Amino acid sequence: MAARHFLTLNDMTTAxxxxxxxxxxxxxxxxxxxxxxxxxxxxxxxxxxEKSSTRTRVSFEAGMTQLGGTAMFLSPRDTxxxxxxxxxxxxIVISSMVDAVMIRTFAHETVERFASASSKPVxxxxxxxxxxxxxLADMQTFRELRGSIRGxxxxxxxxxxxxxHSYINAAERFGFHLNVACxxxxxxxxxxxxxxxxxxxxxxxxEEAARGAQLLVTDVWASMGQEDEQKARESAxxxxxxxxxxxxxxxxxxxxxxxxxxxxxxxxSAEMMEHSSSAVWHEAENRLHAQKALLExxxxxxxx
Length: 304
Hints:
The chain is an alpha/beta fold. 40% of the residues lie in helices and 13% in strands.
């Protein structure tokens, strides 16, 4: 049987995603109750990092350990991937020795090419185009704190980046409407918008996007690799901050989320991390549990 990959949310059906999130919530409860689990005993996850990360490495490595398996950290300095070996050649060899591969890189084409040659499941742990693992954690968090997100309104405030793109896919998969508020010139990918035009509204007004929304989400103004654009982006995005005043425009039970790291005083005001609407720390922990559920689903083809 061909390996199942997770490169975007579109690689799973809505029913599969819903089942995965239910399982992730069970795993969270089990872990917090001190229960142990060894479903991935003697299994190995290769973690390929061309982009560095705190939460991605800790959550995948801890997750494999908690399931009885092992995670192997690989950087471009440690492998032939950083020395010009064709991606497909690396994929054939690495996948012959491990049970799954997680890749965090720049070009989305890299994970697509790796997956095309891999005999084992490949997980996109972030590319410049999509960040589906974070969406699993975000959707799990909303379900645990507010119930189903189907029919809700979500406001994305900021850059039309990889997180925004994955929220567009999530709007289709989970049945909510997404309002995207961004400055001119920073809109999401036009083709992706066209594909999901019934689910997404783009505006240049944060207040318009947030009005009545049940969830407000943002990300840093300059992502990794955009450091040279920092000053220009600070100017373009100065009015695109999530703060208590913007939360007051949203639904009174609205949640605030951020994939982290957060730059207080830029995309969020200093007090938002501790604001009564903030689900940021719950969301951050759920990267661990959502990815454990994903690993079991892809490696074992089960959710129980």
